[in-house]
């Protein structure tokens, strides 16, 4: 199978072809030619305005398999990921059962065979993500778990986090913490502020995130190792991490791409598709997140894909589950909302090289002789996500019916070209 | 006929000052009707109203039911303790089952903030919010402002202190919205742990000392301590609350002016209000209850004119 990408713009700063509009020939899953010649191929892609980058990697996808397959299974998640331009996704371990054994990692790898995207497993830090006893992280790492996190759960106990940060140094491993103090956020439903006051909804103060960020940075200084904060939302957290990075601490962080789309002011009619955790915060917080992306304090953008079935969302606000699907829209949302703040290659970098550096994964290259791990997209094309055509099993998205700019054309990965049927 | 700007009464937030004025004028007429020998009017004949209460209520439910009957509506009552979800049926299913029996309007009380707003996106019937969690209780706020207007001739310029558990009170929130729209000055007073952190951004004064609040105000709206709505501890004991925030006749007499005492009920006698204060000439608590029927008649009447 040969594919010719004709007249396509390369977006990959590490490549000598960066920003060039050229032709790429792919033969049996490898890039065999980049240049002006129009080689013959079984399939020729000649789509105006198309760009190509190395394949996007989402380092925070929650899939319901095993245990909650009715929300999302590997197959549906892979379709959504491919449609959203991701060639690789890292799955969260907080499932039923929790990914905390070699067998569970093996199950993920076995189920990934035949899917268009690569599934990476993250292992749990603590048994049953209860925050008490460490899992067999060395063994899990040997089996293929590429990072360790308790997923939605925060490691509340300082001594447990210190032990984890110490323990994974055996294999230069990464601990990921999603910062939220259990007590300060108790029963909270949205950002604590004037909007939560007006709506009579219990708030989740930014403080609940910031006290854990502060504490964990201090713990990291003590223990050494590598710590990654997932899903930041507050200005205070960004500032603390900026200072920690300046001090040389091995800390990285990400935000959900949808955090740059909304603030708490968008929640006025109790729509549960705006109920996410961490919540949409104030306009000042959103501005600080964007600033953090600009100066590199925030390393990566993630989908924070959290599928929820209708029965978990079509409810009273306080009873509905947190989370939204975002694999299919992650890039388009960032591209739409950040176009004034970041240039295209910076946005792409947050989905490509940054997560791979954090996870210590090899960064694919875009040169002749390299395996083709590519995402094809049009950064200026406008489209409207539709509920009826979502690839996910769930449809909890606030973006349906909203025009976004930047659409994925398809991915080339595992020797296959997978096209977005909606393009 | 003049109409409200809204199809549902979900909250005071959604009403314009003109809406509130219209409700008050309509309530004036109904209050006159209620003083007649024959207290019933045929206005809502052929309209069926369901009172759907997912939280315990005595006075609000009775007040709505009486208002509906005085207007000649057909009335059905549904009450379930706890949320419908716990029974295995969703709120939407419960209400759709009731609506399938050709009900025109829903009066709903629910423990979840925003529950009537959720419903309004999925059903056709007109909805009156009879209290949603810690969000709003619009008819209570309307009857409170109506009672202040009755006492003083107008609400604008009056100083109203809302005292007690502001954090868990839908009455407080709706009252703040209503009083601000009507031009009153508003103060909230209570232990700081029971005051929402951002409450002053609603344009209200904040006071921790109940004596200072009483000395400032023309009207004190004293709230019930909502122990049932506090899911964690916000203050040490009722004893200490009563000592430092309880209002009694002695305290009222020590002010060198006459103020009006209001309470949405039910009163915890001896906690937030002593009996001698609740039963004193300062109190208009029973006028509030009486006005509640007229206000609810006005709201139902005005919304019923929009029944499809």
TrEMBL record, chain A:
<dbReference type="InterPro" id="IPR011059">
    <property type="entry name" value="Metal-dep_hydrolase_composite"/>
</dbReference>
<dbReference type="InterPro" id="IPR004722">
    <property type="entry name" value="DHOase"/>
</dbReference>
<dbReference type="GO" id="GO:0046872">
    <property type="term" value="F:metal ion binding"/>
</dbReference>
<dbReference type="GO" id="GO:0006145">
    <property type="term" value="P:purine nucleobase catabolic process"/>
</dbReference>
<dbReference type="Pfam" id="PF12890">
    <property type="entry name" value="DHOase"/>
</dbReference>
<keyword id="KW-0378">Hydrolase</keyword>
<dbReference type="InterPro" id="IPR032466">
    <property type="entry name" value="Metal_Hydrolase"/>
</dbReference>
<dbReference type="GO" id="GO:0004038">
    <property type="term" value="F:allantoinase activity"/>
</dbReference>
<feature type="domain" description="Dihydroorotase catalytic">
    <location>
        <begin position="55"/>
        <end position="234"/>
    </location>
</feature>
<protein>
    <submittedName>
        <fullName>Amidohydrolase family protein</fullName>
    </submittedName>
</protein>
<dbReference type="InterPro" id="IPR024403">
    <property type="entry name" value="DHOase_cat"/>
</dbReference>
<dbReference type="InterPro" id="IPR050138">
    <property type="entry name" value="DHOase/Allantoinase_Hydrolase"/>
</dbReference>
<dbReference type="GO" id="GO:0004151">
    <property type="term" value="F:dihydroorotase activity"/>
</dbReference>
<keyword id="KW-0665">Pyrimidine biosynthesis</keyword>
<dbReference type="GO" id="GO:0006221">
    <property type="term" value="P:pyrimidine nucleotide biosynthetic process"/>
</dbReference>
<dbReference type="GO" id="GO:0005737">
    <property type="term" value="C:cytoplasm"/>
</dbReference>
UniProtKB/TrEMBL annotation, chain B:
<dbReference type="InterPro" id="IPR006132">
    <property type="entry name" value="Asp/Orn_carbamoyltranf_P-bd"/>
</dbReference>
<feature type="binding site">
    <location>
        <position position="137"/>
    </location>
    <ligand>
        <name>carbamoyl phosphate</name>
    </ligand>
</feature>
<feature type="domain" description="Aspartate/ornithine carbamoyltransferase carbamoyl-P binding">
    <location>
        <begin position="7"/>
        <end position="150"/>
    </location>
</feature>
<feature type="binding site">
    <location>
        <position position="59"/>
    </location>
    <ligand>
        <name>carbamoyl phosphate</name>
    </ligand>
</feature>
<dbReference type="InterPro" id="IPR006130">
    <property type="entry name" value="Asp/Orn_carbamoylTrfase"/>
</dbReference>
<dbReference type="GO" id="GO:0006207">
    <property type="term" value="P:'de novo' pyrimidine nucleobase biosynthetic process"/>
</dbReference>
<feature type="binding site">
    <location>
        <position position="224"/>
    </location>
    <ligand>
        <name>L-aspartate</name>
    </ligand>
</feature>
<feature type="binding site">
    <location>
        <position position="60"/>
    </location>
    <ligand>
        <name>carbamoyl phosphate</name>
    </ligand>
</feature>
<feature type="binding site">
    <location>
        <position position="87"/>
    </location>
    <ligand>
        <name>L-aspartate</name>
    </ligand>
</feature>
<comment type="function">
    <text>Catalyzes the condensation of carbamoyl phosphate and aspartate to form carbamoyl aspartate and inorganic phosphate, the committed step in the de novo pyrimidine nucleotide biosynthesis pathway.</text>
</comment>
<feature type="binding site">
    <location>
        <position position="266"/>
    </location>
    <ligand>
        <name>carbamoyl phosphate</name>
    </ligand>
</feature>
<feature type="binding site">
    <location>
        <position position="265"/>
    </location>
    <ligand>
        <name>carbamoyl phosphate</name>
    </ligand>
</feature>
<feature type="binding site">
    <location>
        <position position="140"/>
    </location>
    <ligand>
        <name>carbamoyl phosphate</name>
    </ligand>
</feature>
<dbReference type="GO" id="GO:0004070">
    <property type="term" value="F:aspartate carbamoyltransferase activity"/>
</dbReference>
<keyword id="KW-0808">Transferase</keyword>
<comment type="subunit">
    <text>Heterododecamer (2C3:3R2) of six catalytic PyrB chains organized as two trimers (C3), and six regulatory PyrI chains organized as three dimers (R2).</text>
</comment>
<keyword id="KW-0665">Pyrimidine biosynthesis</keyword>
<dbReference type="InterPro" id="IPR002082">
    <property type="entry name" value="Asp_carbamoyltransf"/>
</dbReference>
<dbReference type="GO" id="GO:0006520">
    <property type="term" value="P:amino acid metabolic process"/>
</dbReference>
<dbReference type="GO" id="GO:0044205">
    <property type="term" value="P:'de novo' UMP biosynthetic process"/>
</dbReference>
<protein>
    <recommendedName>
        <fullName>Aspartate carbamoyltransferase</fullName>
        <ecNumber>2.1.3.2</ecNumber>
    </recommendedName>
</protein>
<dbReference type="InterPro" id="IPR036901">
    <property type="entry name" value="Asp/Orn_carbamoylTrfase_sf"/>
</dbReference>
């Amino acid at each position: 199978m040969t594919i010719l990408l004709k007249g396509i713009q390369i977006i990959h700063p590490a490549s000598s072809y960066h920003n060039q509009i050229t032709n790429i020939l792919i033969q049996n899953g490898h890039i065999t030619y980049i240049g002006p010649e129009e080689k013959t191929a079984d399939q020729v892609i000649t789509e105006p305005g198309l760009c190509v980058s190395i394949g996007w990697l989402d380092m925070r996808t929650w899939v319901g398999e095993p245990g909650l397959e009715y929300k999302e299974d590997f197959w549906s998640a892979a379709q959504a990921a491919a449609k959203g331009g991701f060639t690789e996704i890292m799955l969260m371990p907080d499932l039923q059962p929790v990914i905390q054994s070699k067998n569970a990692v093996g199950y993920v790898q076995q189920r990934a065979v035949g899917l268009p995207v690569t599934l990476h497993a993250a292992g749990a830090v603590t048994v049953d993500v209860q925050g008490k006893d460490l899992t067999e992280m060395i063994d899990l790492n040997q089996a293929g778990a590429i990072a360790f996190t308790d997923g939605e759960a925060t490691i509340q106990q300082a001594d447990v986090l210190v032990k984890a940060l110490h323990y994974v140094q055996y294999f230069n491993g990464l601990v990921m913490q999603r910062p939220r103090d259990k007590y300060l956020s108790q029963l909270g439903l949205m950002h604590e502020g004037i909007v939560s006051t007006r709506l009579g909804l219990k708030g989740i103060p930014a403080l609940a995130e910031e006290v854990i960020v502060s504490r964990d940075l201090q713990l990291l200084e003590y223990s050494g190792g590598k710590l990654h904060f997932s899903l930041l939302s507050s200005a205070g957290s960004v500032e603390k991490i900026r200072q920690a990075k300046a001090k040389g601490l091995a800390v990285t962080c990400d935000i959900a791409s949808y955090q740059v789309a909304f603030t708490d002011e968008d929640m006025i009619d109790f729509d549960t598709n705006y109920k996410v955790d961490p919540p949409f915060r104030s306009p000042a917080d959103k501005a600080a997140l964007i600033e953090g992306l600009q100066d590199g304090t925030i390393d990566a953008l993630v989908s924070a894909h959290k599928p929820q079935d209708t029965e978990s969302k079509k409810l009273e606000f306080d009873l509905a589950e947190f989370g939204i699907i975002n694999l299919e829209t992650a890039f388009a949302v960032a591209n739409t909302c950040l176009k004034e703040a970041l240039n295209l290659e910076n946005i792409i970098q947050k989905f490509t090289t940054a997560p791979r550096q954090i996870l210590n994964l090899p960064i694919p290259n875009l040169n002749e002789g390299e395996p083709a791990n590519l995402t094809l997209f049009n950064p200026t094309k406008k489209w409207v996500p539709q509920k009826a055509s979502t690839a996910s099993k769930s449809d909890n998205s606030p973006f349906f019916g909203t025009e976004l700019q930047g659409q994925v054309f398809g991915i080339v990965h595992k020797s296959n070209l997978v096209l977005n049927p909606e393009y | 006929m003049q109409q409200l700007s809204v199809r549902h009464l979900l909250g005071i937030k959604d009403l314009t000052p003109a809406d509130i004025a219209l409700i008050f004028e309509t309530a004036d007429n109904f209050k006159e009707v209620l003083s007649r020998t024959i207290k019933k009017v045929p206005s809502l004949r052929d309209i069926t109203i369901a009172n759907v209460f997912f939280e315990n209520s005595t006075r609000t439910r009775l007040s709505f039911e009486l208002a509906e009957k005085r207007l000649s509506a057909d009335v059905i009552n549904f009450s379930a303790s706890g949320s419908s979800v716990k029974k295995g049926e969703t709120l939407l299913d419960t209400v759709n089952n009731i609506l399938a029996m050709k009900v025109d309007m829903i009066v709903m009380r629910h423990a979840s903030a925003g529950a009537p707003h959720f419903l309004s996106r999925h059903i056709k019937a007109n909805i009156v919010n009879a209290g949603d969690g810690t969000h709003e209780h619009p008819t209570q706020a309307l009857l409170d402002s109506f009672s202040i207007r009755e006492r003083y001739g107008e609400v604008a310029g009056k100083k109203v202190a809302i005292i007690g558990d502001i954090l868990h009170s839908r009455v407080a929130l709706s009252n703040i919205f209503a009083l601000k729209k009507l031009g009153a000055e508003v103060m909230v007073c209570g232990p700081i742990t029971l005051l929402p952190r951002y409450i002053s951004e609603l344009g209200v004064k904040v006071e921790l000392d109940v004596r200072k609040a009483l000395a400032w105000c023309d009207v004190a709206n004293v709230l019930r301590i909502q122990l049932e709505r506090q899911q964690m501890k916000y203050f040490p004991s009722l004893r200490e609350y009563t000592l430092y925030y309880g209002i009694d006749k002695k305290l009222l007499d020590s002010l060198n002016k006459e103020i009006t005492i209001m309470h949405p009920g039910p009163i915890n006698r001896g906690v937030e209000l002593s009996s001698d204060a609740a039963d004193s000439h300062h109190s208009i608590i029973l006028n509030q209850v009486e006005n509640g029927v007229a206000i609810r008649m006005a709201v139902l009447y005005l919304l019923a004119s929009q029944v499809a």
